[in-house]
Design the sequence.
């Protein structure tokens, strides 16, 4: 049905039925776009091979390629190819060069991923993010990494996939995260970029722990300044808050302390393991940084996690101020807004009773989940239904689209008692159903071909 206009018969359909037809065509169109972009990648990779053959630098063997005389010729062939493709397609050379680099990586390092793109099962936006992560790994680690990436691409939007892929990369990289973090810190800095109309962009590259703390502080200041007579958007208040803090105005920041949440394996705290911790809102951080944070942390919550399922069983409170324990527990447990595809942090969302409190729903982990303001209103004002999804393997198991949320191993939730499953079923006004899964801790993503699945991590 791609590219067709509605027939007279289709126009006679009821609006709801015609909407379903349009929605189906949009899905088909997205698959066709992905397939076309996958085909483009394969053609570009082949074009590189042909350009090298025509310039006499292909099939020369490793020794020949290593010779100083060959490398400049190979690079010249690539530059010429990029220029010609750019002219033929009326694209910038920078864009084409990026396409070429991505194409070669997809063909040679991510063949399974490229196949999924070519069949329309995965978008090219997912592929671009996969390329970024796989190129940061040594060649010998890329194949196994790809096998774990493909299932994630089927479960997540491109942005959420990027987050999960970054965490998987930390596990897959043969070099210690501590060594890599120390080396990466050398690249920290601030860059100024002029923009039109009297504006500019300031880039700050810094350690993740500092970045998350600064981001949280800016957000708290911006929220504290919200007033009915303030015409500024939240983004504008965040910008003004940062400028005031840096330039000395402070704009109310003195009263506010930034909050970060770090979940650390017990063995790492005890210094008997180098396993990474997880920084909420970012991902894995090295063990040394995690222990340094733990040494000065004002509050602790200790959670017990089922070693096979990754579900949190219980928590022992170790906190001076118990108020807010459940809220903190669910922030870590949900990680983001639970609406399909939404990546807004749970700490910036609203807690929603899945079964309305007024209708008998209780205030417990089993009946609470985070929804951002937009999707909270969508549930209550626009006829979207939300309910606890049947567990996998039950007679009522769903066959709808799934939006998995699988955080890194050992990201410990802090609820008093979590149910075995906190999966949610969202039903649209047209009856389409979508399932989102709560995080499962200590359990890696489902492998592509689980012939010999590794045992789950302890704790």
Sequence:
């Amino acid at each position: 049905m791609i590219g067709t206009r509605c027939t007279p018969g289709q126009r006679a359909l009821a609006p709801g039925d015609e909407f379903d037809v349009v929605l189906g065509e949009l899905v088909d169109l997205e698959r066709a776009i992905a397939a076309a972009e996958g085909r483009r990648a394969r053609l570009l990779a082949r074009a590189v091979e042909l350009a090298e053959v025509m310039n006499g630098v292909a099939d020369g063997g490793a020794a020949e390629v290593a010779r100083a005389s060959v490398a400049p010729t190979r690079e010249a062939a690539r530059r010429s190819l990029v220029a010609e493709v750019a002219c033929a397609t009326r694209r910038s050379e920078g864009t084409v060069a990026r396409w070429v680099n991505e194409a070669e990586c997809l063909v040679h390092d991510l063949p399974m991923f490229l196949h999924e793109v070519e069949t329309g099962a995965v978008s090219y936006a997912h592929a671009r993010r996969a390329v970024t992560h796989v190129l940061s790994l040594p060649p010998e680690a890329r194949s196994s990494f790809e096998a774990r990436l493909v299932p994630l691409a089927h479960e997540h939007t491109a942005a959420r996939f990027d987050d999960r892929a970054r965490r998987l990369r930390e596990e897959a990289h043969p070099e210690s995260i501590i060594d890599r973090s120390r080396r990466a810190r050398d690249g920290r800095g601030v860059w100024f970029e002029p923009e039109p109309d009297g504006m500019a962009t300031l880039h700050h590259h810094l350690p993740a722990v500092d970045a998350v703390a600064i981001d949280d502080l800016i957000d708290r200041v911006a929220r504290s300044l919200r007033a009915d007579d303030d015409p500024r958007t939240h983004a504008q208040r965040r910008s003004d808050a940062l400028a005031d803090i840096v330039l000395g105005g402070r704009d109310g920041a003195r009263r506010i302390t930034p909050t970060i949440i770090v979940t650390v394996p017990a063995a790492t705290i005890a210094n008997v393991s180098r396993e990474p911790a997880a920084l909420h809102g970012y991902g894995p951080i090295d063990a040394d940084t995690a222990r340094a944070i733990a040494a000065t942390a004002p509050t602790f919550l200790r959670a017990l996690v089922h070693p096979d399922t990754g579900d949190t069983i219980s928590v022992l409170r170790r906190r001076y101020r118990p108020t807010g324990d459940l809220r903190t527990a669910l922030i870590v447990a949900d990680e983001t807004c639970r609406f399909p595809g939404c990546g807004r942090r749970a700490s910036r969302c609203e807690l929603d009773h899945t079964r309305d409190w007024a209708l008998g729903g209780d205030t417990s982990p089993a009946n609470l989940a985070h929804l951002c303001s937009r999707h909270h209103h969508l549930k209550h004002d626009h006829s979207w239904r939300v309910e606890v999804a049947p567990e996998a393997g039950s007679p009522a198991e769903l066959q709808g689209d799934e939006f998995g949320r699988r955080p890194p191993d050992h990201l410990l939730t802090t609820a008093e008692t979590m149910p075995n499953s906190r999966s949610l079923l969202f039903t649209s006004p047209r009856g389409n159903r979508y399932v989102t899964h709560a995080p499962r801790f200590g359990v890696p993503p489902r492998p592509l071909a689980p012939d010999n699945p590794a045992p789950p991590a302890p704790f």
Q: What stands out?
A: Confidence is low (pLDDT under 50) at residues 60-68, 316-323, 392-420, 442-459. The radius of gyration is 25 Å.
